[in-house]
UniProtKB/TrEMBL annotation:
Protein name, as recorded: Aminotransferase
Signal peptide: none
InterPro entries hit by this protein: Aminotransferase_I/II_large, AspAT/PAT-like, NHTrfase_class1_PyrdxlP-BS, PyrdxlP-dep_Trfase, PyrdxlP-dep_Trfase_major, PyrdxlP-dep_Trfase_small
Ranges for domain Aminotransferase class I/classII large: 32-392
Upper taxonomic lineage: Bacteria, Pseudomonadati, Pseudomonadota, Gammaproteobacteria, Lysobacterales
EC number: 2.6.1.-
Names of the cofactor(s): pyridoxal 5'-phosphate
Organism: Vulcaniibacterium tengchongense
Enzyme class: transferase
Biological processes per GO annotation: amino acid metabolic process
GO MF terms held by the record: pyridoxal phosphate binding; transaminase activity
Length: 401
C-alpha cells in the first residue's frame, strides 16, 4: 500500500475529543454522565440569526462567493472590532475562514516554513501544538505554571523573542485556563514585542467578549498601535454567539497576511457558505442580548466552580476572569487511590479516567494542554447539572486514600 504523507504521522487526534467520546459511550450505556469536557458554549444564537439564514436560503444566489469573505460580512466584522477599540482596519486587512481554527491553520501555512520556530505559552489550546506539528515548525513552549497564574511574564517573553521565532502565538482570554491579561500586563508584553521586529504575533482572542470582573479586553495593538503591522488578531462567532457549528472565523492584520489567507482560501474552501455568511452578519450586527446574558451567566458559574474547588484541601486554582474554563492543579491527588473503586491515580489522565468511571464526571486532563498537573473544567453545562457535578468532584476527592 502507498504511504501516507509524513505530516499525517505528526498529527494526533484531539485528546479533548477522546474524553468526550468516552463520556458519550458511557452515556449510551445508560450511565448518568455530567460533562465538563468539551469547550462548547451550550447555547443557541438569537432568533434573528435563524431568520437571516432562512432568508439567505430563500434568496440563494447559486454562485461561489468571495475568497476573502462577502463585503457585508467583512464590514460587519470591522464594525464589530471597532466596538473593542480595534479601529483603522479596512476590507484589505481582514479575511474569513471556516472557524478560527481554520484561520489559524491557514496562518501557520502562510507564515511558517518547515523548521521555522513558533513560540507559545503553556498551557496552550491543544490545536496550537497539533497545527505547528503538521506544518513541521520548531515548537518553543513557554511554561506558565499555576504559581504565576498561568500567565506569561515580560522576562519570559523577552528571552523567547530574543531567539527570533518566526511567530509568537498568544491567547487571551485563555483556553484552557480562563486567565485574562490586564491592561498593564498587555502593555508590558507589548513593550517587549516592540523590541523584536522580526516576529509575527498572532493574538487568538476569540473569547474577547467573555471577560468578567470589569477587567476588559486588551490587545497589544491597543497598547502600541504601531504593532499593527505584525499583530494578527483572530476572532470567531463560535463561543461569543453560540455558533460553533456555523464555522465562521476571522483574522485582521497586515494587508499582506490577509491576502495570504485569501490565497489559501482560494485553494481549498473557496468561500464561507452564503447561509453561514448571512447568519454571521446578523449575529454581528443584530441585538447583542444573548452574548451579554451568557457572559453574566458564565461569570456566576465561574464563581460557583471556584467556591466548590476552594473547599477541596490541596487543590490550587488561579482565578479565571474570562472564557468558560477553570484549570485547577489537582496534583495533590497523584500517588493516591480512589477508595471505593480501588483505582490508582498516578497522573492527570488516571485522575480523569477514575473520576469518569467512579462519578460519571468528564473533565479533560491537563496534559492535553501541556500542563499535566491540572485538568480542565468547562462549565457551560446546563445550570442544573453544575452543582451536582461539582458535588461529585468534591466527593471523589474526599474518597481518595
Ligand atoms: C483558543 C481557541 N482558539 C480557537 C478555537 C477554534 O474556534 P472555532 O470554532 O472558531 O474554530 C477554539 C475552540 O475551542 C479555542 O478555544
Amino acid at each position: 500500500m502507498p504511504q501516507l504523507a509524513r505530516r499525517i504521522g505528526r498529527a494526533k487526534p484531539s485528546a479533548i475529543m477522546q474524553v468526550a467520546e468516552k463520556a458519550k459511550r458511557l452515556k449510551a450505556e445508560g450511565r448518568d454522565i455530567i460533562s465538563f469536557s468539551i469547550g462548547v458554549p451550550n447555547f443557541l444564537p438569537g432568533e434573528h440569526v435563524y431568520a437571516a439564514a432562512r432568508d439567505a436560503l430563500a434568496k440563494d444566489s447559486g454562485q461561489y462567493g468571495s475568497n476573502r469573505g462577502a463585503d457585508l460580512l467583512l464590514d460587519a466584522f470591522i464594525e464589530h472590532m471597532g466596538k473593542i477599540g480595534l479601529t483603522g482596519y479596512g476590507r484589505v486587512n481582514v479575511a474569513t475562514g471556516v472557524g478560527a481554527k481554520h484561520v489559524i491553520y491557514n496562518l501557520a501555512e502562510a507564515l511558517l516554513d518547515e523548521g521555522d520556530a513558533i513560540a507559545f505559552p503553556t498551557p496552550y489550546w491543544t490545536s496550537y501544538l497539533d497545527i505547528a506539528e503538521i506544518v513541521n515548525a520548531k515548537i518553543e513552549l513557554l511554561p506558565c505554571p499555576p504559581e504565576q497564574d498561568y500567565k506569561l511574564t515580560p522576562a519570559q517573553l523577552d528571552a523567547a523573542l530574543a531567539k527570533k521565532p518566526k511567530v509568537f502565538l498568544f491567547n487571551n482570554p485563555s483556553n484552557p485556563t480562563g486567565m485574562v491579561y490586564t491592561k498593564e500586563e498587555i502593555a508590558a508584553l507589548a513593550d517587549v514585542i516592540a523590541k523584536y521586529p522580526d516576529t509575527w504575533v498572532i493574538t487568538d482572542d476569540i473569547y474577547n467578549r467573555m471577560v468578567f470582573d470589569g477587567v476588559g479586553y486588551h490587545n497589544f495593538v491597543h497598547a502600541r498601535p504601531e504593532l499593527r503591522d505584525r499583530v494578527i488578531f483572530i476572532d470567531s462567532l463560535s463561543k461569543t454567539y453560540g455558533m460553533p457549528g456555523w464555522r465562521v472565523g476571522f483574522m485582521a492584520g497586515p494587508e499582506a497576511v490577509a491576502q495570504a489567507i485569501v490565497t489559501m482560501n482560494s485553494n481549498h474552501i473557496t468561500n464561507v457558505p452564503e447561509i453561514a455568511t448571512a447568519a454571521a452578519i446578523a449575529a454581528l450586527t443584530g441585538p447583542q442580548d444573548v452574548p451579554t446574558a451568557k457572559c453574566a451567566e458564565f461569570q456566576a458559574k465561574r464563581d460557583q466552580v471556584m467556591a466548590a474547588l476552594a473547599q477541596i484541601p490541596g487543590v490550587v486554582c488561579p482565578r479565571p476572569q474570562g472564557a468558560f474554563y477553570v484549570f485547577p492543579d489537582i496534583s495533590v491527588a497523584f500517588g493516591r487511590t480512589h477508595g471505593p473503586t480501588g483505582l490508582a491515580i498516578g497522573n492527570d489522565v488516571d485522575f480523569c479516567n477514575a473520576l469518569l468511571e467512579a462519578k460519571g464526571v468528564a473533565c479533560v486532563p491537563g496534559s492535553a494542554f501541556g500542563e499535566p498537573r491540572a485538568l480542565r473544567i468547562s462549565y457551560t453545562c446546563p445550570t442544573q447539572q453544575l452543582a451536582p457535578g461539582l458535588q461529585r468532584f468534591q466527593e471523589f476527592f474526599a474518597e481518595l486514600q
